[in-house]
TrEMBL record:
GO terms for molecular function: zinc ion binding. Residues 1-35 form the HIT-type domain. This is Box C/D snoRNA protein 1. Interacts with FBL, SNU13, NOP58, NUFIP1, RUVBL1, RUVBL2 and TAF9. Interacts (via HIT-type zinc finger) with the RUVBL1/RUVBL2 complex in the presence of ADP. Residues 238-267 are annotated as: Disordered. Keywords: Isopeptide bond, Metal-binding, Phosphoprotein, Ribosome biogenesis, Ubl conjugation, Zinc, Zinc-finger. Required for box C/D snoRNAs accumulation involved in snoRNA processing, snoRNA transport to the nucleolus and ribosome biogenesis. Belongs to the BCD1 family. Pfam families: BCD1, zf-HIT. Gene3D superfamilies: 3.30.60.190. Residues 242-258 have a biased composition (Low complexity).
Length: 267
């Protein structure tokens, strides 16, 4: 058992592959690693490791996607003029800020979660934002984050040893114990293949809006907070030696079929 290291393991978590000996240890490992115990159906598998079971799993996954898309297409909110106007307004305002904002159809998790709004009186976005701390397996969701707030100020309640909540500070002690100069903020570049994932490094001293300019965002930004001193698998574009850094024009590519249909409907 990888939790208590005392008893013989009887179970293996489908999500993180950790071995456990009992229900108590299963619950402990889920709490410690923020693991939901659900197998990741979209995890990348190399061709050499691909089996008939993986093929069957992919087939069932596509069936589930088809059912979900069909249910979403029948949802009354999809055809609501007010909803279409709101999404069109958000995308239009984002385009004016040099941000390519893409929205998903109703039924997708990110569409349901997204609480991003635009205040016309203040001419300001209030973003739905997700912070991911990979070294501690922790995620936090922020709502109503003004676009003129710097990334350093956004992170203070989480990694600043003086201003962070004691519970959060304890969970993120790897970050709070490290100097601020070691903290890197990354954002995944959208519209790349699964085996060629790259990240853009953001500037903590600049505002959220400045960092999002020239980027492609699907529903809302997700920021990954990593430490330079700790090993991670996130490759920053232009720093891996295999390809040059992209500009904002080359980052965007054609929309997926579901996004194209949704935007045509909204327009």
């Amino acid at each position: 058992c990888e939790t208590c290291s005392k008893e013989e393991a009887k179970y293996r978590c489908p999500r993180c592959m950790k071995y456990s000996c009992s229900l108590l240890c299963v619950k402990k490992h889920k709490l410690a690693l923020s693991c939901n115990g659900v197998r990741d159906k979209t995890a990348f598998i190399s061709v050499n490791e691909f089996t008939d079971l993986n093929l069957l799993s992919d087939y069932r996954f596509l069936e589930d996607v088809g059912r979900t898309a069909d249910a979403a297409a029948r949802h009354c909110i999809v055809h609501s003029p007010a909803t279409k106007r709101l999404l069109y307004c958000l995308r239009n305002k984002a385009r004016g800020c040099n941000i390519e904002l893409k929205t998903l159809p109703v039924g997708f998790t990110k569409r349901r979660e997204n609480s991003t709004t635009f205040n016309s009186m203040e001419n300001k976005f209030y973003w739905h934002l997700k912070l991911v701390f990979p070294h501690c397996h922790a995620e936090y969701t922020l709502k109503g984050v003004p676009d003129d707030k710097t990334l350093a100020d956004i992170l203070k309640p989480y990694i600043d040893p003086m201003e962070s909540d004691p519970v959060v500070c304890q969970r993120l002690k790897i970050y709070t114990a490290s100097p601020q100069s070691d903290v890197r903020i990354l954002m995944k570049i959208e519209n790349r293949s699964r085996n060629s994932v790259r990240y853009n490094e953001l500037d903590a001293s600049r505002s959220l809006l400045d960092n999002l300019k020239g980027k492609v965002i699907i529903e809302y930004p997700t920021l990954f907070v990593v430490l330079k001193t700790l090993k991670n698998d996130m490759v920053v574009l232009g720093q891996d030696g295999s390809e040059p850094a992209e500009n904002s024009d080359s980052e965007s590519s054609s929309l997926s079929s579901v996004e194209e249909g949704e935007i045509r409907d909204s327009s």
